[in-house]
């Protein structure tokens, strides 16, 4: 029987990748946290309401349900091949009124083409996308980001690097819900080959590493901003209580 319709509280027991909008995209008990941390990172990096943002692989709007109300009408764009994730998020989290008022735009393809909206982006976020991609798809994605970012735009993306002493397991194509790992050196080379500059940042992620990419190296966080990012830890147990 499908678990798609069960209450979100019950869905917390499901394994990542399961058939529920809070579980398909990762550990269901992290649904709120993984949205909050993306929203906080992007606004710390300078995202404001007049910017145009692409949420690449937006899934069930974990970040989108915070970004859509924040951005000016028409400024949120999402690409997500699994349309049901967006449908369920609109029905159970975002609401039709918000869609009518803020006019987010969605495409449902898996080609990595970010140009079909016909607009360049100030920000792109791709959370837990390249952690499921072989080098072939990362090359395709980063090249698309380079072409579809404004000259001073930035992309925030995540990778998984192997632990010290372990070999990378880069996989091929799309790997899901399992993950792939890429060495820091291979990631840096893929970013360079796409015509981008990139830096990993110390923004907390429970399982992955955030990188910031831009055509413009002066848009990458400098030492002061890196310190700010390092200090902002949303997981402080003193402030987080779970039911
Ligand atoms: C781990 S989830 C992350 C979702 C979202 N970024 C978040 O943080 O909640 C990975 C998402 O990538 C989507 N996906 C799969 N293939 C894709 C492709 N070729 N292009 C864009 N998204 C894709 C999946 O359907 C899934 O929603």
- How many helical elements? 8
User: Overall pLDDT, averaged?
Assistant: 95
Q: Strand fraction band?
A: 15-25%
CATH superfamily: Vaccinia Virus protein VP39
Q: How do the strands of the widest beta sheet line up side by side?
A: 3-2-1-4-5-7-6
The biggest beta sheet is recorded as: 7 strands, mixed
Radius of gyration, Cα only, in angstroms?
17 Å
- Low-confidence region ranges: none
Q: Structural class of the secondary elements?
A: alpha/beta
CATH topology: Rossmann fold
Helix amount = 25-40%
How many domains?
A: 1
> How many strands?
7
Query: What is the molecular shape?
Result: globular
In the CATH hierarchy, the architecture is: 3-Layer(aba) Sandwich
- Write down the secondary-structure element order: HHEHEHHEEHEHEEH
Query: What is the name of the CATH class?
Result: Alpha Beta
Task: List the ions, cofactors and other small molecules found in this model.
Answer: S-adenosylmethionine
């Amino acid at each position: 029987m499908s678990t798609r319709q069960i209450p979100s509280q019950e869905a917390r027991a499901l394994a990542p990748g399961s058939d529920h909008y809070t579980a398909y995209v990762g550990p269901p008990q992290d649904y709120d946290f993984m949205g909050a941390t993306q929203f906080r990172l992007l606004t710390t990096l300078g995202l404001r309401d007049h910017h145009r943002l692409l949420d690449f692989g937006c899934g069930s709007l974990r970040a989108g349900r915070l970004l859509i109300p924040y951005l000016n009408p028409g400024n949120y764009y999402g690409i997500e091949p699994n349309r049901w994730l967006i449908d369920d998020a609109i029905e159970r989290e975002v609401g039709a009124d918000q869609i009518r008022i803020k006019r987010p735009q969605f495409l449902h393809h898996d080609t990595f083409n970010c140009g079909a909206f016909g607009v360049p982006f100030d920000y792109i976020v791709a959370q837990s996308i390249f952690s499921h991609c072989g080098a072939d798809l990362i090359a395709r994605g980063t090249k698309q980001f380079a072409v579809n970012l404004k000259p001073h735009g930035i992309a925030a993306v995540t990778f998984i690097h192997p632990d010290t002493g372990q070999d990378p397991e880069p996989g091929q194509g799309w790997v899901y819900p399992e993950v792939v790992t890429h060495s820091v050196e291979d990631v840096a080379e893929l970013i360079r080959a796409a015509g981008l500059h990139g830096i990993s940042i110390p923004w907390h992620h429970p399982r992955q590493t955030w990188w910031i990419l831009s055509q413009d190296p002066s848009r990458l966080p400098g030492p002061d901003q890196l310190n700010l990012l390092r200090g902002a830890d949303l997981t402080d147990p003193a402030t987080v209580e779970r039911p």
